[in-house]
Design brief:
By secondary structure, the chain is of the alpha+beta class. It has twelve helices and nine strands.
Length: about 450
């Protein structure tokens, strides 16, 4: 390549760089086609679903929540633990559980727990889960869907085929084939628990053609079939055929165990949050006492400082002031924790976040000493553990799935019995039972069959 060509190429590259600059390349469309050219402007815009869902009155009419700066409650709601659990169970179509626990700074303060309904709504338990599993179809089907495989089933089909086609014939056959064919079939099938399948079919065929070799231009073919099919290897036996039903019932039992565990956890969360609110009130009272005591100490030391008396040194006054502001911040933190725990209890109970009332626990915790027998609580925990029972159901489910999988490895070998009644005639049915046999004109297919 010559020196002039190289220099020209550099000039072209510099010119293109200056013209394009650092701007990103945007898509360019030659014509407005109504689809691609407006993609960036319209198709990627954020839209909101048009869903008509009525908001609960207690949500839309909720009062302003209480804060440290502006407490917004007019009266105290003295609540017992039994009432809290009862309200929570009556309002819990969706089971609300508090998930992970995170402590405050250096372990000080109440536990902060996340709500599973807000964090993972798709995995939240509802009171409808067992019923949904019981009536599920398709994958992981329920008992009703599994039992439907043994119901009597009716299938019917009708096809009509009309032909008008030239043919390469001159002597015997007509040069143009004109033919009408109608096929009708109705089948009643039933599957037994042993795997045997029974079929009863009604087959009706109509054929009309212009071929000269036919005895009659049209004919009806009528057949009744009775068939029985018995598997000899794969799919044989009551146990193998009932496995889908048992698996469906086991899935329902697993869902019931999940529901039981969710209710247990919900009650435990209500009780735990109730006592946390009780502790929040006691913590607030204790911190207020410490704040008032620190304020009195500061005022006394400050008075000694102004009088230049002993004990009124500047360092002691500063320390007393620091202690007062420390306890005042603790009071604000305690009040913040109280409002937060009260809101958690309201959410677990399924009531409005704020209704101008502040919940106050009135039950007192038990202070009596309780001694547990290790062997007794160990046996009771094994017996009552929902998680252990759930895993047992899953283990039983896997055992049955293994039996079904082994049966599917067997070759398919069936014994089939088929009996057929046949009839053909010029007509399908006739009010006058002439008794003529095909191919006599006027013969009927049902007369031939019966």
């Amino acid at each position: 390549m010559s020196r002039h060509a190289t220099r020209f190429g550099r000039w072209v590259f510099a010119f293109l760089t200056i013209m394009t600059g650092c701007h990103p390349v945007q898509p360019f469309y030659l014509a407005e086609d109504g689809d691609l050219s407006h993609y960036l402007e319209s198709a990627t815009q954020i839209e909101h679903p048009d869903v008509e869902i009525a908001t609960l009155d207690e949500v839309s009419g909720s009062a302003v929540p209480s804060t440290i700066v502006s407490p917004n409650y007019q009266e105290m709601w003295d609540l017992t633990l039994e009432e809290a659990v009862s309200i929570a169970m009556n309002n819990s179509k969706v089971i609300k559980e508090l998930g992970r626990i995170s402590r405050g700074f250096q372990g000080i303060g109440l536990a902060q727990r996340s709500d599973t309904v807000l964090q993972n709504p798709d995995f939240a338990s509802t009171i409808y889960d067992p019923a949904i599993q019981e009536t599920r179809v398709g994958a992981a089907e329920g008992v009703e869907a599994a039992l439907s495989a043994f119901d009597a089933q009716v299938a019917s089909s009708v096809t009509w085929d009309r032909t008008n086609r030239p043919q390469n014939f001159q002597a015997i056959f007509t040069p143009t084939l004109e033919q009408d064919q109608v096929n009708m079939q109705t089948e009643l099938s039933k599957r037994a628990a042993t795997g045997t399948q029974f079929f009863f079919r009604n087959i009706t065929n109509y054929d009309k053609s212009n071929q000269p070799i036919r005895a009659l231009p049209s004919d009806w073919f009528q057949a009744l079939e009775l068939e029985a099919r018995q598997p000899l290897l794969q799919g044989r036996g009551e146990m193998v055929n009932r496995i889908p039903i048992v698996l469906a019932r086991l899935r329902t039992d697993v869902r019931l165990a999940d529901m039981e565990a969710s209710v247990r956890n919900a009650v435990n969360d209500v009780e735990r949050t109730y006592w946390e609110l009780y502790f929040a009130y006691r913590n607030l009272s204790a911190t207020k006492t410490g704040r008032d005591s620190a304020l009195a100490t500061w005022q006394r030391v400050n008075a000694l400082l102004e009088a230049s008396a002993e004990g009124g040194e500047a360092d002691k006054a500063a320390q007393a002031m620091e202690q007062y502001y420390f306890f005042r911040s603790r009071v604000e933190e305690a009040l913040r924790d109280l409002y937060r725990v009260e809101g958690q209890l309201r959410r677990l109970m399924g009531i409005a976040p704020s209704d101008c009332r502040l919940i106050r626990p009135i039950d007192e915790p038990t202070t009596a000493k309780v001694d547990y027998d290790w062997c007794a609580i160990l046996e009771e925990s094994i017996t009552r553990s929902v998680e252990l029972r759930r895993q047992k159901w899953i283990l039983k489910q896997r055992e049955l799935e293994l039996v079904a999988a082994k049966n599917q490895l067997l070759p398919q070998l069936d014994a089939v019995m088929l009996y057929r009644w046949l009839g053909v005639g010029d007509q399908l049915l006739s009010e006058d039972r002439s008794g003529l046999n095909f191919p006599a004109p006027g013969s009927t297919a049902w007369d031939e069959l019966t």
